[in-house]
Amino acid sequence: MKLLHDRIIQDGLAFDDGTLKVDSFINHQMDPILMKSIAVEFVRRFANLPINKIITIEASGIAPAIMLGYLLELPVVFVKKKTPKTMEKMYLSSVYSFTKDRTYDVCVSEEYLSKDDNVLFIDDFLANGNAALGVKSLIDQAGATLSGMGFIIEKSFQEGHQRLVDLGINVQSLARVGSLAGGKVQFID
Amino acid sequence: MKLLHDRIIQDGLAFDDGTLKVDSFINHQMDPILMKSIAVEFVRRFANLPINKIITIEASGIAPAIMLGYLLELPVVFVKKKTPKTMEKMYLSSVYSFTKDRTYDVCVSEEYLSKDDNVLFIDDFLANGNAALGVKSLIDQAGATLSGMGFIIEKSFQEGHQRLVDLGINVQSLARVGSLAGGKVQFID
């Protein structure tokens, strides 16, 4: 996706430790026009799948997911990273975050994910794939069908992509970053 | 906003303890078409203000804020409830949550809020106003101008609305709930 590649080159900050900072346009300050273009590209990538619901994870996945839900006229469910007091029946899974070096719970109400759902998961980043696998566990617990996973940016030098593909998941990342060496972003396709 | 009132009556769950559960269409599962209509109403309510940026707070504020940012073609900044390791210079404020009976920090990077900004704050709920006042503190620390605050639902039987109005803030709530007594939602206008 050229528009996204160009924007990452222009406004992204790459660091040798594998960090790619895009918080001026994706995950702290957000560019809604870019988010709409990203959603359009997801429509194209997942065309013809019988999706009835978008699922994402708070907080940075919500913007692209709601834009995609708007275009497809589908409900969007966001998985929560904390267990709300008011939620009674829910699916729960644990996710280990390397960035934060801690394990956190992800959960979704049983009311909003069921065996009748055919879902598309959307998130901002794919790195080691732990968060995506945590959400996959929720989808599996609900007996729902996972049609695909779409990410804005993938760190292709980490193992997430392969872990998901090995499970037979249709993974679409709009920008695949092969290297951040020397503070320079290199895309792999 | 009749569409929103009708939806709250249809799908909201009211409890005598003052809880209004709208997580089937606003803050867990989200209806993107409704979010677009909500954003259009915010455009109408805040027409002619010299806003250059939308500010919201994770996670439930992001959907209406990004839709509004999309319509107005303005950047959207979401205030974080945790202090990210990668954020160096930020404005910070503490918020006490009655619902969760704990104090949490809210923060925004100094890069995305400055004295040149004229911001509109958007969130899903206004109750006691503590979260909104926490964000106002961040806006004040940055020397930015606050043009108004827009909420999808206001619990008008709590003190938030009056606390914000007393500070001279232009507060617009699209559904003002006067009472939840007997599990019945009553609007005040």
UniProtKB/TrEMBL annotation, chains A, B:
Where do the annotations place xanthine binding? L20, N27, K155
Q: Which UniProt keywords apply?
A: Cytoplasm, Glycosyltransferase, Purine salvage, Transferase
Q: Listed GO molecular functions? A: xanthine phosphoribosyltransferase activity
Q: Does the keyword Cytoplasm apply?
A: yes
Q: What is its EC number?
A: 2.4.2.22
| Catalytic activities | XMP + diphosphate = xanthine + 5-phospho-alpha-D-ribose 1-diphosphate
Q: Where in the cell is the protein located?
A: Cytoplasm
Pathway assignment reads:
Purine metabolism; XMP biosynthesis via salvage pathway; XMP from xanthine: step 1/1
Sequence positions that bind 5-phospho-alpha-D-ribose 1-diphosphate: A127, N128, G129, N130, A131
The main location is cytoplasm
Role of this protein: Converts the preformed base xanthine, a product of nucleic acid breakdown, to xanthosine 5'-monophosphate (XMP), so it can be reused for RNA or DNA synthesis.
Family of this protein = Belongs to the purine/pyrimidine phosphoribosyltransferase family. Xpt subfamily.
Quaternary structure (record): Homodimer.
Question: By its UniProt entry, which HAMAP family does this protein fall under?
Answer: XPRTase
Q: What is this protein called?
A: Xanthine phosphoribosyltransferase
Gene transcribed to yield this protein: xpt
